[in-house]
TrEMBL record:
Keyword Chaperone in annotation: yes
PANTHER family the UniProt entry points to: CHAPERONE SURA
Top-level lineage group: Bacteria
One Pfam family this sequence matches: Rotamase
Organism in which the protein naturally occurs: Sphingobium fuliginis (strain ATCC 27551)
Protein name (database record): Parvulin-like PPIase
Keyword vocabulary terms for this entry: Chaperone, Isomerase, Periplasm, Rotamase, Signal
InterPro entries assigned: OMP_Chaperone_SurA (IPR050280), PPIase_dom_sf (IPR046357), PPIase_PpiC (IPR000297), SurA_N (IPR015391), Trigger_fact/SurA_dom_sf (IPR027304)
Domain PpiC: 212-309
UniProt keyword Isomerase present: yes
Length: 461
């Protein structure tokens, strides 16, 4: 399982530390997420309903047709067109390899419009505070996105048009993220304080938790009210189904999550269960790496979480070892059958068994016509899970069994060196302080955006 690269930003990257635009391309190209699905929807809290003083028996005067989906809006005078929605939607469809049903497209279209409204409110509020993102800065970020696709900006423009999107759509998203992060940095961050006693308390808790489980979590957070809870839960389930069918968790987090970590694909970073809301902590504790759970009821809405990795707090992890490897590979001629490939792979495996350490790898490669490539400082954790399990138990000089495919050829890895992982150190006081500040900034940012929505004049067309 390849980890994917997401108002709960408890440990992950902050909205106010600047845009990481290159992650957009990773989100669009990310591989699908698989894993078992756990759904534990928490019961609604009745406090909000009681505050509204709603009657128990409700008579609805008039009709609300759920099949009528309005695709455009005017937000405080700024028009969001159907084309804006279509082009942003195309990015999501691209992330799913185009495999989105017509019914799902309509659901996604509604959510995309909501996201565009929030984005517009954020840009407008930044402008009202004399914050303007220069075109040159947007251009630089856009160039980094294009470079991540190994394309020039002009080539990337053409690629986006072929996908039914546009450069303008991504540029608008870049502008919104930059403008909002600067607004938070000016209006919220200076008023967030963390004391030394709070930092010391965190350090003490981490030392006390040494050896306990720690997770790297991805989250998609969707806000909900008692009135629209059922609809939001249905939307969350649809997102999960799309991810299970091969969609990118990071892409969905970037487009739909209402947490500040949406800009980094929903990545919360490494967290312990006690750092999560009880509902998420309970779910994470029961999950394996690669699993998705949700929708999970949390204060203010629902969350979808994805366990990207797992480790022990302040404990050396064998999978963090650095390896020096030699790769020997042979390719198959065009038209090779499965039986022929198996025969060739078996012969290759027998020849590799004669290797006595990496010193003989180049010599053997020359004899059997194999390509030999050196790979130094490879972190074991970054390799495919199947290879991790094999390499964990290999000594220096030993080789893996052959692996590959008819199209990619067959290869082996020979372990030439291993630097074992040292015991993990606790984050320093500065890092912990930044994490605590980040959490508080994000909580206030949620309230800020909620107030902007409440005061907005929105005309749906």
């Amino acid at each position: 399982m390849q980890p994917v690269v997401s108002p709960f930003s408890r440990i992950g990257s902050t909205a106010y530390r600047g845009l990481r635009t290159v992650l957009l391309s990773s989100a669009l190209l990310a591989t699908g997420v698989s894993g078992s699905l756990a759904q534990t929807v928490a019961d609604d809290d009745n406090v909000a309903t009681q505050q509204l003083n709603l009657p128990r028996d409700v008579t609805v005067f008039g009709k609300s047709d759920p099949n009528v989906r309005k695709a455009t809006a005017i937000v405080n005078g700024r028009i969001i067109t159907g084309t804006d929605v279509d082009q942003r939607l195309a990015l999501i469809i691209t992330a799913n390899g185009g495999k989105v049903s017509d019914e799902e497209k309509e659901r996604l279209r509604v959510q995309v419009l909501r996201n565009l409204i929030d984005e517009t409110l954020q840009i407008q509020e930044a402008a009202a505070n004399d914050i303007k993102v220069d075109k040159a800065e947007i251009d630089q970020s856009y160039e980094r996105v294009a470079a991540n696709f190994r394309q020039s900006p002009a080539q990337f423009d053409q690629y986006l048009r072929q996908q039914g999107s546009s450069a303008a759509s991504i540029r608008r998203q870049i502008e919104g993220e930059l403008a909002w992060s600067r607004l938070l940095r000016r209006n919220i961050q200076p008023f967030v304080n963390v004391s030394e006693d709070e930092v010391k308390s965190v350090v003490d808790r981490m030392n006390a938790a040494k050896g306990s489980d720690e997770f790297r979590i991805g989250e998609i957070y969707l806000s909900a009210t008692p009135e629209n809870q059922q609809q939001i839960v249905a939307n969350a389930r649809n997102i999960i189904e799309q991810i299970k069918q091969g969609g990118s968790f990071a892409a969905y987090a970037r487009q739909f999550s209402e947490a500040s970590t949406a800009a980094v694909g929903g990545d919360l970073g490494w967290v312990r269960p006690v750092q999560l809301p009880d509902e998420l902590a309970q779910a994470a504790a029961e999950m394996q790496v690669g699993q998705i759970a949700g929708p999970i009821g949390v204060p203010g809405g629902v969350s979808i979480i994805y366990v990207m990795d797992k480790r022990k707090v302040l404990t050396a992890d064998p999978r963090d070892a650095l390896l020096s490897l030699k790769q020997l590979s042979v390719s198959f001629p065009a038209g090779t059958t499965k039986e022929q490939a198996s025969t060739r792979a078996a012969a290759f495996a027998a020849q590799v068994k004669t290797i006595k350490g990496c010193g003989q790898a180049n010599e053997l490669g020359g004899k059997i016509g194999a390509d030999v490539v050196d790979n130094d400082n490879v972190k074991l954790r970054d390799l495919p899970p199947q290879l991790q399990d094999i390499l964990l138990n290999l000594q220096v000089g030993e080789a893996t069994p052959p692996f590959g495919s008819i199209n990619d050829g067959v290869r082996v890895l020979v372990v030439c060196g291993r630097d074992e992982a040292s015991s993990a150190a606790a984050p320093n006081a500065e890092q912990i302080m930044a994490q605590l500040e980040e959490e508080r900034v994000n909580k206030r940012a949620r309230i800020y955006l909620r107030d902007l929505r409440r005061d907005a004049v929105i005309d749906y067309n």
